[in-house]
Design brief:
Layout (H helix, E strand, L loop, with lengths): L21 H4 L33 E3 L5 E3 H8 L21 E2 L2 E2 L2 E6 L2 E6 L13
Antiparallel strand pairs: 1-2, 3-4, 5-6
Length: 133
């Protein structure tokens, strides 16, 4: 018997590396571990300010281990009610230094209505070299 493939369709899936294993996020029915604590949209989706998920809607990690869409956190930090605190545990917000591939992620300063805040975000993650190079 001879088989000939006339068409095929590739399927791909991606996830943000939030530091939570996929086993941990699948334990409960509501998957609290893989949604932004501010907008309640899954990390694989995009925040309400964005139209397309991915590198243009990055995640940001706090030293308290909470993760948010960067745009959601910037909007939160810009409000007077935030008092520059984590929205989940109300500790002072300090952005965690995350390393990808052995190199730290770039750091920038953002000024909100309550003064300057240092934000570290994975806005431009390193890309792997193309196959064959």
């Amino acid at each position: 018997m001879k088989v000939e493939v006339k068409h095929w369709h590739a399927v791909a899936q991606w996830r943000w590396d939030t530091g939570v294993s996929s086993d941990d996020t699948n334990k409960g029915d509501d998957d609290e571990g893989d949604v932004c604590g501010i907008c309640r949209v899954p990390y694989e989706g995009c925040c309400p300010a964005c139209k397309v998920p991915g590198d243009d809607c990055p995640l940001i990690w706090g030293e308290c281990s909470h993760v948010f869409h960067m745009h959601c956190l910037l909007k939160w930090i810009g409000t007077a009610a935030s008092k520059q605190q984590c929205p989940m545990d109300r500790r002072p917000w300090v952005t965690a230094e995350r390393k990808i591939g052995g190199s730290p992620i770039s750091t920038g300063n953002v000024t909100g209505s309550n003064g300057p805040t240092t934000i570290t975000a994975d806005a431009n993650p390193p890309r792997p070299p193309p196959p064959g190079s």
